[in-house]
Amino acid sequence: MATNNGAFLICDDLYKIFKVADIEVMALQGLDLTVKRGELVGVVGASGSGKTTLMNVLGGLTRPSAGQVIIDGKNLLKLSTRELTAYRQIEVGFVWQQGSRNLIPYLSALDNIKLPMTLAGVAGAQIDKRARELMDLVDLSDRYDHKPIQLSGGEQQRVAIAVALANEPKLLLADEPTGELDSTTSDQIYDLFKRLNRELDLTICIVSHDPDIRKHVGRVVAIRDGKLASETVKRSASQKPRLHIQGETSSGEHLEEQFEELIVLDSAGRLQIPKQYREELGFENRVEMEVTEDSIVIRPAKNLDETSSQAEIQLEREIRVGENGARGSFISRFRRNS
Prior knowledge:
This protein is an alpha/beta fold. The chain folds into two domains: about 5-265, Rossmann fold (3-Layer(aba) Sandwich); about 275-330, no CATH class. The chain is built from nine helices and 15 strands. It has an eight-stranded mixed β-sheet with strand order 6-7-8-3-9-10-12-11. Strands 2-1-4-5 form a four-stranded antiparallel β-sheet, covered by helices on one side. Helix 4 packs parallel to helix 6 (about 155-165), helix 5 (about 125-135) packs across helix 6 (about 155-165) and helix 6 runs parallel beside helix 7 (about 185-200). Mean pLDDT is about 80; it is low at about 245-255 and about 320-338.
C-alpha cells in the first residue's frame, strides 16, 4: 500500500476493467502514481495506454475496478454518489481538447464561467465578480461578452481554463489542452498553466501526446499498457543528464535544459523494458538476471528450448517485424543505498 508522505494525490495498485460485449479490456493494470501538492505533472503515452482513463478516474468521472485513489486525503472509492458529484463540482476542474466539451456555444465567456458556480449553489453579485476576476487572470479582460465562435482557439482554451477554475478547485486536469492549437499558441497555454501553478499553488496534471511537454512541466510520467513505465525529470547542471534540449531565453541568452528518463520499479519489483531495447538486444519472454556489487544485470536467456515457453517464443519470432538478429545484454543499474 502506498503511504501518504505528504502527497496530494496517490494511486495505489490501480485497475480499471471495461467490458464490451463479452470481452474485458484492462485499461489500467496495477498503476501506481504519487503527485505532490502544488506539482505540475505531464502524463504521456500512446493511444490506448490508459492515460485518459487515469484522468477520468482522478476526476471522479469513472470508478476504478480495484486499488486506491486518494486525493487530498479523500479515498474516491469510498465516496457516495452524492459526495462524488460534489467532488466533481468543487474540488476538481477539467479542461478538454475539444472546445465543444469546454464551452456552451450560445453563452458569453462570462456566462460560461458563471454556470459552474450557479450549479454549485453560489448566488449573488459575487458570481459576476469572480467571473471577471478569472477572465482577467487568463488575460481576456477585453472578451467578457464574446461567445466562443467569436474567440480564437487559444482564447477559447483560456476561457475553458477560467471555467475549470470557477469553483476554486484544488486539482486541475487537462486532457490534450493544446492538441488543436499551433505551436506558438500551445506555448502560451503552457505558460498560463505554469503561472496558475505558481501563483495559485494549484496541482495540475496535463495529458499530452506532445513530447516537448517536458519543457513545460516539472515532471513527466509515461504510461504504457496501463502501468507507469517511466518518469522524465529535469536535472540541475551539476547532475549528469540523459537528454539535452537547447534553446534561448527571451533575452537571447543561451539555454540548455537537461532531462533524465528513469524506469519505474513498481511495488511488486516489476519494470518495463522498452520494446525497442528488447528487440535490439534480442530479448525473448525469458531473461537471465545477475546481481553484482552495485547493479542488476539482465541478459537474454539461454537454453530457451528447455523452457515451457518455447512455442510462445517461436510464435513471437515468426510475427516480429524488422528483427535484426542483434543479441546482447541490457544493463539496468539500480544504485544500492550506501
